[in-house]
């Protein structure tokens, strides 16, 4: 089960809310799962940013070139004589 991380910051004035939220998101670096903004008193707010890392099965994978030599479309077109990308037709 993936771990949840939560960061809470309080006493933020209304005009600084966007900057504080952006700072928390960039500090954590993981995808945001939940963002809570709660008014405390006057025009001050508490924010809570919760992130959840993706399970290994859903994490984006790196593509390392699945095609081997001779498997690409352009090489197939060269061998069959069809005009394609990179051919002088």
Layout of SSEs?
Blueprint: E1 4-13, H1 17-28, E2 32-39, E3 44-52, H2 73-80
Antiparallel strand pairs: 1-3, 2-3
Describe, in plain words, how this protein is organized in 3D.
Helices cover 22% and strands 30% of the residues. It is of the alpha+beta class. The chain has a domain at 1-54. Strands 1-3-2 form a three-stranded antiparallel beta sheet, with helices on one face. A hairpin with a 4-residue loop joins β2 and β3 (44-52). The chain is elongated and about 55 Å long.
Average pLDDT reading: 76
Query: What amount of the residues lies in strands?
Result: 25-35%
- Major beta sheet summary: 3 strands, antiparallel
Query: Given the helix and strand composition, which structural class is it?
Result: alpha+beta
Radius of gyration: 25 Å
Q: Percent range for helical residues?
A: 10-25%
- How many helical elements? 2
Quick recap:
With 89 residues, the chain is of the alpha+beta class. The protein has a domain at 1-54. The protein has helices at residues 17-28, 73-80; strands at residues 4-13, 32-39, 44-52.
Kindly list the characteristics that best describe this protein:
89 residues; three-stranded antiparallel β-sheet; 2 helices; 3 strands; 22% helix
């Amino acid at each position: 089960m993936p771990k949840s991380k939560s960061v809470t910051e309080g006493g933020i004035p209304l005009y600084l809310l966007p900057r504080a939220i952006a700072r928390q998101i960039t500090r954590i670096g993981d995808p945001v799962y939940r963002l809570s903004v709660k008014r405390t008193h006057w025009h001050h707010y508490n924010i809570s940013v919760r992130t959840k890392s993706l399970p290994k099965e859903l994490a984006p994978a790196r593509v390392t070139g699945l095609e081997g030599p001779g498997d690409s479309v352009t090489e197939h077109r060269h061998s069959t004589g069809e005009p394609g990308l990179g051919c002088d037709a």
